[in-house]
C-alpha cells in the first residue's frame, strides 16, 4: 500500500476538501494531519485522522515528532497550503527532513517556497523569463524605482495568497500612495505589470521531472484579475510544457504546483508570474480534462517518471471546467444571472461539477454557499 500523509494547518482553506478524493482514486492509503475544523476532514475519502494543534509551534513539533517516530511509514508527505509550507520551511534545518516534507528537492532554492521575493530571485538565478522587478527592502528610494521599472507595476507583499496583498499601480504619481497602503514592506516585490493572456496552470513533478499538467484559460474571476478563478477552459500546450520541464529541473520541484504565466502576444513570450508549490482547488477537477492528476499519482507510485508528450490541444477541443461553490457564489455577488442559469438548467453539463459523489463535502459546501448568500442578501 502506498501511504500518503496530507498536512494542513489552515482550517479556513477550503481548497483541501477534495484532495483526499484525488489520492484515493489513485489507490493510496490516505491519512490526514489537521485540526477538527479543517476542510481536510470534510470528505469520506481519508482513512485516518491524526489530530493536530491549531497553535503553529505545537503543530510543527507534532508533525516532526510523527515523522521521527514513523520515518519509513509514509511514502509521500504533502503539505497542502502556503501557511503550512512556510511554517515548516522556516523550521526545518536538516536536508533529509526538508526533502521528506517539502515540495522541492533542492534545498538551496528553499527561498522560492511561499515567497514572492524568493520566486523572483530564483527566476533571475536560472534565467527564467519573469517581469522586471525590484525588492523594496533593497531599493526603497521611489526615484530609483521609477528609473528601474516601467509602469504600470504591481506591489506584492512577500507572503500573500488568493490575491490578498497585491496592489496595482497605474503610474508614477500613484506609487507613494500605494506604498503607504502596504501592510508588510519586508521583501516587498515591485514588479512590472505585463498586459497579456492569463494562464492558470496545475502541474505535478517528481524529482524535477514533469509528470502531468493542465493549462487553463481564465473565464471568470471571483472579484478582479488578482483574485482566484471560478471557471476555466483547459488544454495542453507543448511550448508551455517545455517551459515547465525547465522550471521543474532548475528549481527541483517535487510535488504539486499551482503556477501562473502571462503570455505577451507582441513579444511572443510567456512570463512566469507565480509558483505556489502546493495543491489547489482545481486539481481534483482534472478528471474532466483528460489529464487526470490521479493518473499522475499512479505513475509516481509505479515509478513511471518519464515525461509523455501530449501535443497541443486545438482551441475547439479545450474543456470548460467550473468549481461549483466558487462560481455559484460569484454569480450571487456579481448578479450574473446568465451564470446562475448554467447551474440551474445544467447548461453545458455543469451539474457534473457539483461534488455529489461525497455527501460530506457537498453538505459543508452547501452551508458555506447559504451563509454567503444570506450575507449578500442582508447587505443589499
TrEMBL record:
UniProt cross-references to PROSITE patterns, sorted A to Z: ATP_GRASP
Range of residues in the leader sequence: none
ATP-grasp domain sequence ranges: 120-302
InterPro entries recorded: ATP-grasp, ATP-grasp_RimK-type, ATP_grasp_subdomain_1
Pfam families xrefs: RimK
SUPFAM superfamilies: Glutathione synthetase ATP-binding domain-like (SSF56059)
A GO term for molecular function: ATP binding
Keywords: ATP-binding, Nucleotide-binding
Protein biosynthesis among keywords: no
Coiled-coil intervals: none
Protein name: ATP-grasp domain-containing protein
Organism for this UniProt entry: Mucilaginibacter paludis DSM 18603
Native organism taxonomy: Bacteria, Pseudomonadati, Bacteroidota, Sphingobacteriia, Sphingobacteriales
Amino acid at each position: 500500500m502506498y501511504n500518503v500523509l496530507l498536512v494542513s494547518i489552515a482550517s479556513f482553506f477550503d481548497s483541501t476538501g477534495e484532495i483526499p478524493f484525488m489520492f484515493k482514486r489513485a489507490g493510496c492509503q490516505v491519512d490526514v494531519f489537521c485540526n477538527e475544523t479543517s476542510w481536510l476532514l470534510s470528505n469520506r475519502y481519508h482513512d485516518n485522522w491524526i489530530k493536530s494543534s491549531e497553535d503553529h509551534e505545537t503543530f510543527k513539533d507534532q508533525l516532526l515528532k510523527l515523522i521521527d517516530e514513523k520515518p519509513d511509514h509514509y511514502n509521500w508527505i504533502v503539505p497542502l497550503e502556503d501557511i503550512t509550507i512556510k511554517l515548516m520551511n522556516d523550521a526545518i534545518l536538516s536536508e533529509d527532513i526538508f526533502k521528506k516534507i517539502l515540495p522541492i528537492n533542492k534545498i538551496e532554492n528553499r527561498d522560492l517556497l511561499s515567497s514572492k521575493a524568493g520566486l523572483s530571485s530564483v527566476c533571475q538565478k536560472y534565467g527564467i523569463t519573469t517581469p522586471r522587478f525590484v525588492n523594496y527592502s533593497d531599493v526603497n528610494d521611489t526615484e530609483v524605482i521609477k528609473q528601474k521599472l516601467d509602469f504600470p507595476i504591481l506591489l506584492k507583499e512577500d507572503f500573500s495568497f488568493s490575491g490578498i496583498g497585491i496592489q496595482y499601480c497605474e503610474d508614477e504619481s500613484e506609487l507613494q500612495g500605494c506604498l503607504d497602503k502596504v501592510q508588510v514592506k519586508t521583501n516587498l516585490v515591485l514588479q512590472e505589470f505585463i498586459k497579456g493572456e492569463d494562464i492558470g496552470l496545475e502541474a505535478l513533478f517528481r524529482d524535477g521531472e514533469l509528470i502531468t499538467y493542465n493549462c487553463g484559460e481564465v473565464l471568470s474571476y471571483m472579484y478582479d484579475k488578482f483574485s482566484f478563478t471560478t471557471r476555466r477552459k483547459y488544454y495542453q500546450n507543448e511550448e508551455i510544457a517545455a517551459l515547465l520541464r525547465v522550471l521543474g529541473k532548475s528549481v527541483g520541484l517535487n510535488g504539486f504546483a499551482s503556477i501562473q504565466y502571462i503570455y505577451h502576444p507582441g513579444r511572443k513570450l510567456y512570463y512566469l508570474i507565480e509558483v505556489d508549490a502546493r495543491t489547489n482547488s482545481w486539481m481534483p477537477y482534472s478528471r474532466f480534462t483528460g489529464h487526470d492528476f490521479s493518473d499522475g499519482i499512479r505513475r509516481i507510485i509505479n515509478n513511471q517518471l518519464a515525461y509523455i508528450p501530449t501535443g497541443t490541444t486545438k482551441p475547439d477541443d479545450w474543456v470548460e471546467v467550473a468549481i461549483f461553490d466558487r462560481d455559484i457564489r460569484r454569480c450571487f455577488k456579481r448578479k450574473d444571472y446568465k451564470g446562475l442559469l448554467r447551474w440551474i438548467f445544467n447548461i453545458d453539463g455543469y451539474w457534473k461539477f457539483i461534488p455529489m459523489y461525497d455527501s460530506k463535502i457537498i453538505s459543508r459546501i452547501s452551508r458555506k454557499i447559504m451563509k454567503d448568500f444570506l450575507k449578500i442578501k442582508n447587505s443589499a
